[in-house]
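Input for the complex:
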Amino acid sequence: MRTIAHPVTDQITMSGLLHALSDPVRLEIVRTLGHCGETSCGGLGVSVSKSTLTHHLKVLRDAGVTQTRCQGVQRLVSLREDDVEARFPGLLSCVLAHHEPGNTQAGVP
Amino acid sequence: MRTIAHPVTDQITMSGLLHALSDPVRLEIVRTLGHCGETSCGGLGVSVSKSTLTHHLKVLRDAGVTQTRCQGVQRLVSLREDDVEARFPGLLSCVLAHHEPGNTQAGVP
DNA sequence: ACCCTTGTACGACATGGATCGAACGACGTC
DNA sequence: GACGTCGTTCGATCCATGTCGTACAAGGGT
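Predicted:
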């Protein structure tokens, strides 16, 4: 499987985006990518099995949130920040800005 | 049931918001409220049964997206735009600005 | 008082999807 | 070519939740 399918920018939908981001695991993946930039699948550090990770990455990719390219035996995943921003200005940046670092939303600093 | 429970602003979470907004029916409800302001349950014009609508309104309310007040035999629902904006600036306004008027994601070949 | 309208509560059902383990495929290294 | 690494695919499972119908509660109008 050399070529990996990605939706074009215009195919990114609000529903798809929100659904993709509504899962905690995927939200953490997006957060990590926002911090670290392009990362291999194994480098994401999520606490799920490989097959589950593959599933989540596919959901994110299908929603247009991320892109994946092959490098040898690895898959390098990165955010499509520009595309998503172009389509829905402010959404992804807002999510990235607020990605609760775990769950600090309780107390109001 | 006179008093209806609403979360305080600080309890609104990103995950909760995104989850609440990730359902098409709820997204349409939010979109309608954004257009029309305070609306009764029956005035939302969604194509689901009453019980399902009650369920969705509860999810939105629990997520902090909407508030409900009683007026006679009706429940008037409205967005908590200010609260959500205060908590996650830009998120709700972005969603409202882009509420697809149906489904324009089709072709664009 | 009666009834109608409005919405909620409850139980049942079906589907989606999050999860995992095991088997497999693609690449690089030896 | 053999092996190890990295990730995908497949099948199974299990839980959350979206959906509905029915029964019920609250208010207003006649």
